[in-house]
Amino acid sequence: xxxxxxxxxxxxxRHDFQTRGGRxxxxxxxxxxxxxxxxxxxxxxxxxxxxxxxxxxxxxxxSELLGAPHIVxxxxxxxxxxxxxxxxxxxxxxxxxxAGRPLGDTQARTRTGASIVAVVRDQIVHASPRPDFRFEVGxxxxxxxxxxxxxxxxALLRTG
Amino acid sequence: xxxxxxxxxxxxxxxxxxxxxGHLAMRGGISPIPLYLLGGLAFGxxxxxxxxxxxEFIEVGAEIGVVLLLLTLGLEYTAEExxxxxxxxxxxxxxxxxxxxxxxxxxxxxxxxxxxxxxxxGGVTGISSSGIIAKVLGDLGRLGNRExxxxxxxxxxxxxxxxxxxxxxxxxxxxxxxxxxxxxxxxALGLLVAVLFVALRHSxxxxxxxxxxxxxxxxxxxxxxxxxxxxxxxxxAQRMQVSAAVGAFLVGIALSGPVAEGAQEVLxxxxxxxxxxxxxxxxxQTDPAKIPSALLAGSLLAxxxxxxxVITGWWAARRxxxxxxxxxxxxxxxxxxxxxxxxxxxxAVAAGIEPKLGPLAxxxxxxxxxxxxxxxxxxxPVTRAGRRRLAARRPPSAAPG
Lengths: 160, 401
Description:
The complex is a heterodimer.
Chain A: E1 4-8, E2 12-18, E3 24-30, E4 35-40, E5 48-54, H1 56-65, H2 70-76, H3 78-81, E6 86-91, H4 108-112, E7 115-121, E8 124-127, E9 140-145, H5 147-159
Antiparallel strand pairs in A: 1-2, 2-3, 3-4, 4-5, 6-9, 7-8, 7-9
Chain B: H1 4-28, H2 33-43, H3 55-76, H4 79-110, H5 115-126, H6 130-139, H7 148-175, H8 178-201, H9 203-210, H10 219-239, H11 244-254, H12 257-285, H13 291-319, H14 324-333, H15 339-351, H16 357-393
């Protein structure tokens, strides 16, 4: 499968590819985080038939539905084993103050009581990340703690 | 002299009616720019509701509008995108300029307005409205289309052409002759090259002037610094007779990376406000009584403008290996003219070169800002019908490819 990448000056990037069934699919990634899911016309392959704009959150959800981080799902099953504990997955958004900064800067455990047990990047699980682990935009942070504690970590990673 | 309540009442009335006009434009699926111009015609001298007290404010607001329009135009593309576009699509850019400036230049000479007005009118008919086009492509869900990069690359090249054209134009307008303006042109073009060089090599340093990459992003500080810097440079440029617009544009090109994106975000509401004020001001300066006499020349220019842009887009898309339908879509997408045609005409009107130029430009943009989005919307059924008719006339074996 060949994925074609095209720059859209002033807008962002377009990736598209042909399915085995002969249909063309693509994603337009806007600079500001919006994604457009585009399905090309079967007859006029230059034109999009459908264009569905997705927010950052919706595109995360869609990619998960399509099977990206199955591994995370398994990790968060831990929560079912211990009553009162939950596992949360939190994505590092482009506007997160901790994007590009080390995990230690968050002081998540002291500030919230919840633990960061793993970070998933490009479908690879980095278990028990050390304080010098640097977050990148798009990382999925797996946090374990009480529901309140994990919610505070989510808020912390979002707004600092 | 003027009391504050009167100013508030007038200004509030203007902005509120612009809001209503914008709403109507959105409902009708057209650009609000032509309606803002019509609003300006109504508020100006000889209009339905001439303004008094707030005119001074609107005049300053209009100049800030020009600065913001060009600052955000500069921010839209990075220096890399500009150079990349130049390397890959230069032939399309040259064709675009030659083909689309010609009707304006010819019209100015036919009307007997002289060479400086020809340069102005060539710019007015030449440059597409990247604002309208990006909006229309987004609204029609065509950002993923395979001809869209072609359309955008033509816009990128027009952007670069503006950087060369504006200094030349302002020098000509200030000196009225090609000879005496050449020093100013040399200064401005030298500045442009320097800015492009700095933007490519040292953009991180310029960027640090307005943004501290280590600190958390703060929209308020970012807004104040970017706007302040743009106005400062615009002021210096104006002092050097290079025009405030050019200065603001160069600031936009020099800023890059996350700052540019952040700045675009925080500036866009301000730009919308002041750009609307600018369109109104341009309309106010235009005497509505002169519009009818400009209508014939304006309509002829509009027809020529549609044809030349469609040819440009068609050719550029064919070069990129796009099919027939996509070629026409690319051509129709490029038709819209708007904010930058008005900016160019505004500079000429301010310099007072030809009294009939303002009404003609207003008339032209009124038509093109309405026709542009409609052309983009209806190009597919029209092309399909045209191809069917063509196919019916020919034997079936010679169907067009």
